[in-house]
Amino acid sequence: MKLYSTSSIITLGTCMALPATAQEVVRESLKEKPNIVLIYADDMGYGDLSCYGAERVQTPNTDALATNGLRFRNAHSAAATSTPSRYGLFTGEYPWRRKGTQIAAGDAALIIKPGRYTVPKMLKEAGYTTAAVGKWHLGIGNTSGEQDWNGKLFPGPREIGFDYSYIMAATGDRVPCVYLENQQVVNLDPADPISVSYTKNFPGEPTGKDNPELLTGLKPSPNHGHDQSIVNGISRIGYMKGGQAALWKDESIADSITVHAVQFIERNKEKPFFLYFGTNDIHVPRFPHERFRGKTGMGHRGDAIVQFDWSVGEIVRALKEAGIFENTLIIITSDNGPVVDDGYMDEAVEKLMDHKPWGPFRGGKYSTFEAGTRVPFVVHWPEKVRTGVSDALVSQIDLMATMASLTGSEKKEEIPVDSRDQLSAWLGVDPDGRDFVIGAASTLTVLTRDWKYIEPGKGRPYNKLTGTELGNRPVDQLYDMRSDRGEYDNLANKNKLMLRWMKQILEEEKSRGTELDL
Questions:
Q1: What is the reported pTM?
Q2: Which residues of 232-270 are buried (b: 16+ CB within 10 A; e: fewer)?
Q3: Is residue 446 scored above 60 in pLDDT?
Q4: Phi (first) and psi of residue 178, to 5 degrees
Q5: For residue 448, what are the CA distances in angstroms to 336, 345, 432, 440?
Q6: Hey, what domains does the chain have and what are their CATH numbers?
């Protein structure tokens, strides 16, 4: 049997699947520019929200948006970890195509080069004011390890398209534990400058390894390596000294970033804006505010989910009070799947009970199995999005092309081929979405609406520290996702034709490479 080019098959399938009314909905949407709010959770699994079936934790604010909007059951991040997912989100390019997009160190240089065309740049050209608030984890500065944390840092969010930024300098478990507002440390005392090293400690500075008596917040899990500099009674990865007045308090991170997101909304309510709001709650170290502790009986991880939902509610409240809720497109999703013990002894494992952060799927953060990239995805836009539940296959890699379609961008030639216009699916008109999506963890995967292929990998089958099944095997894996969501019945030797076709899709995607060289 002849195997036709996957590109021709996919193009034909897309044209045939598109409902006749889809373009009408798109044209109707373009009559006015909506505000766009992207709420990007960190390490939130498919099963962590009550609108996705969780029972031990309640998320009423997110649930309300899901009930009155569209909840997707087959949505995917660009990768199974934080930094590459964010890279794909903002650039529209699969992160596995680009070297240096792995999990960023706390002193990493900016991973998205200033010359790249990005989602915020595109939206600025369309007349939007843009902001990045919260978790960043894409690096900053020109050279890794050579940032001057006591001055203005370049390049950063502004150089890739954000007019305003209030971000965590690195990520929650890495130094420096400070906020950057418009690329400068907030509340820094010049008499107490910041020094950062990821190679050796500074003389006289305590660490979690050598001074466990100072760990009044959380203690690190054994062998994870989160046992270096201590900030707020919690040891981190990396070494830091100075900047005492600028250090964040973990229990107040959600409050701080939410306040700044709300203030941005209030300042810009008279003009269209794009707000990227990256939360940190569920990522380690989990240390929710006291007013959320004990809300779930699941320890800090469960309570952090409630805290996340509070932030969602505050964003919605601000939009309503500003009178712009009806004309705001809200997207809620996560950067990757869940992990329970990722470096700190916060009782997440002991108090998990029957809660399943990964939902009905296998794996989690770091994994090629489905729970690594299948994430919550809620789209809300009153009178524009069809309410209900969608099984369309959608990916965060399509944010750029989809927002270009929504806003009428005139530079579609700048959009990478990986990013596809899926506006009709995101609005709930097209029930199918993508024909396939490529996933990335330690190996690559191909997912269609019915089948999943995992290429052979040489890595360990399990992450020894987190216990997560990584899905690495030295042989081809093929699963029928219609009947085997747990990916247990490998059909690679039983369905050679489907295996060949799925491998052909991956090889064609690999061979396309990228036309960009930045």
A1: 0.95
A2: bbbbbbbbbbbbeebbbebbebbbbbbebbbebbeebee
A3: yes
A4: -140, 160
A5: 19, 38, 10, 15
A6: 33-189+247-426 (3.40.720.10), 437-512 (3.30.1120.10)
